[in-house]
Amino acid sequence: IAHDFNNLIAGILGHTQLLLIEAPEEQREGLAVIEQAARDGRHMVERIQQFTRAQQPEDHEMVDLNTIINDVIKLIRPRWRSRPASTMIQTRIEKGQIPLIYGSPFALREVLTNVVLNATDAMPKGGILTIRTEQVDDDVIMEVSDTGIGMDEETQIRMWEPFFSTKGEHGTGLGLSMTHAIVVQHHGGRVAVQSEVGAGSTISLVFPIPRPE
């Protein structure tokens, strides 16, 4: 369906751009509105496709979440270094003795990257980011905490919804919804949030420990 919509939008956009080349001045404003609407429609289809791809299962294997943390920190650390000194992010990594879980390394890196970047964005004046892992009963828990601006109750309720964002034009509203889908639907896990306005947030990602067959 998305492919068909893309073809329709491409046709509208292409013909509109051709008309704009030779259109008289009094028609150009209306054609420009159509062109922008077509561009917006194309971006919307792309966002829906991204969300749909996140809901498709990945190849699973035994994964060490502590290794996932190492991978993600290496990826994101250069971004932190580009921040002004007054807004630097301090990191605290507290790795527990945890068993392997069954999952997709690619998808789990995407999950942690999304959560860490959201935590970073919540600390515009700098702060402390803590990532912790531990085993509790039959689960492995990975927690990401920040000392940022925190969230009100409504935001905590809606944060996992597709296309919900508090970042305005800078946010797609897909990162955390894809995170929720990957953890819950693909890994049989759970997500939880604790937050207070002005006091930071903690996102908990809970994964079941595989049972011996």
UniProtKB/TrEMBL annotation:
GO terms for molecular function: ATP binding; phosphorelay sensor kinase activity. CDD domains: HisKA (cd00082). Keywords: ATP-binding, Kinase, Nucleotide-binding, Phosphoprotein, Transferase, Two-component regulatory system. The keyword Nucleotide-binding applies. SUPFAM superfamilies: ATPase domain of HSP90 chaperone/DNA topoisomerase II/histidine kinase, Homodimeric domain of signal transducing histidine kinase. Residues 1-211 form the Histidine kinase domain. The lineage of its organism: Eukaryota, Viridiplantae, Streptophyta, Embryophyta, Tracheophyta. This is Histidine kinase domain-containing protein. Gene3D superfamilies: 1.10.287.130, Histidine kinase-like ATPase, C-terminal domain.
